[in-house]
Write a structure and sequence with these properties.
single chain; 227 residues; alpha/beta; Rossmann fold; 7-stranded mixed β-sheet; 6 helices; 9 strands; 27% helix; globular; binds S-adenosyl-L-homocysteine
C-alpha cells in the first residue's frame, strides 16, 4: 500500500535531519507544516515528497526539498526576519520561510517578499499563498528581482533561487549590516556554487562557498538574459 503524503514528508525531513542538512528544529517544523503538494501541478501530487526538483510550468522548477532546507540554514532565517526572495516560482519556498520568520503562534512578526519575473507564475504563487493562509506574511511582486526590491529594504536575508553570473550590487546594498545573501553563482549550464555573503559593515562583505548546486538561470538586468 502506498505511504500517505504525510508519512512521506515526515520520512524525507527525518532523513535530512539525520544527514545534517537540517540543523535546527525550526527549519524541520516549517518544512513539516507547508503542504508542498498544494503548490505543484496536480500531475506531480504523488511525487510531492520525492526530494528532487518538480516542474511548475514555463520551463521552471521548484527546488528539491534538501535545497530548500539548505538555503533556510545558509540564510540563518529566524523569527522576526525580513526576507527577500528572488525567483518566487510557485510560492512554496516563500511559505517555508514564512513559517520560520513569522510563526503564527508567536508575537514575532517577520515578513517575506518574493519577486517573480514570469507573470503567470507570480499570479499562481499569489493564489497558492492566499488559499493556504500565507498572504498576510508573504507579499508577491511581479518584476525583475535582479534589481532587488528597494521599497522594503533593508533585509535580514536575501535568497536567490536562480543561477546568477555574480552577486548583483543592488542585492548586496539592500542587506542590513549582519544580513545574509544566499545565491547560486555560476553558469546555468554547469554546476553553480551556492554562496553565502554576509554584510559585515557598510562597505565590507564576507563571502563563503557552500558547495555545488543546479538552478535555472536568473534573467533580468543582472542575470544571464536581459528580458
Ligand atoms: N523558489 C521557487 C522556485 C524558483 S525556480 C519556488 O519555491 O517554487 C526560479 C524562478 O526564478 C523561476 O520561476 C524564474 O521565472 C524566476 N526568475 C528568474 N529570473 C528572475 C528575476 N530576474 N526576477 C524574478 N524571478 C526570476
Amino acid at each position: 500500500m502506498p505511504k500517505s503524503l504525510e508519512e512521506q514528508k515526515r520520512r524525507v525531513i527525518q532523513n535530512l535531519v539525520e544527514a545534517g542538512v537540517i540543523k535546527r528544529k525550526i527549519v524541520a517544523d516549517a518544512l513539516m507544516k507547508v503542504p508542498r503538494e498544494e503548490f505543484i501541478p496536480e500531475a506531480y501530487r504523488d511525487s510531492a515528497y520525492v526530494d528532487s526538483p518538480i516542474p511548475i510550468g514555463h520551463g521552471q522548477t521548484t527546488s528539491a526539498i534538501h535545497m530548500v532546507a539548505w538555503m533556510c540554514e545558509a540564510a540563518e532565517l529566524k523569527p522576526g526576519d525580513k526576507v527577500l526572495e528572488i525567483g518566487g516560482g510557485c510560492g512554496y519556498m516563500a511559505a517555508v520561510y514564512a513559517e520560520i520568520v513569522a510563526p503564527p503562534e508567536s508575537d514575532v512578526k517577520g515578513h517575506v517578499y518574493t519577486i517573480e519575473i514570469i507573470s503567470d507564475l507570480a499570479r499562481k504563487a499569489e493564489e497558492n499563498l492566499k488559499k493556504l493562509g500565507y498572504i498576510d506574511r508573504v507579499t508577491v511582486i511581479h518584476g525583475d528581482g535582479s534589481l532587488g526590491y528597494p521599497q522594503a529594504a533593508p533585509y535580514d536575508a536575501i535568497i536567490v533561487t536562480a543561477a546568477s553570473p555574480e552577486a548583483p550590487k543592488p542585492l548586496r546594498e539592500q542587506l542590513k549590516i549582519g544580513g545574509r545573501l544566499v545565491i547560486p553563482i555560476g553558469s546555468p549550464y554547469y554546476i553553480q556554487e551556492l554562496t553565502a555573503i554576509m554584510r559585515i559593515s557598510k562597505d565590507e562583505y564576507e563571502e563563503r562557498g557552500l558547495g555545488g548546486c543546479v538552478f535555472v538561470p536568473l534573467r533580468g538586468k543582472h542575470g544571464w538574459t536581459r528580458d
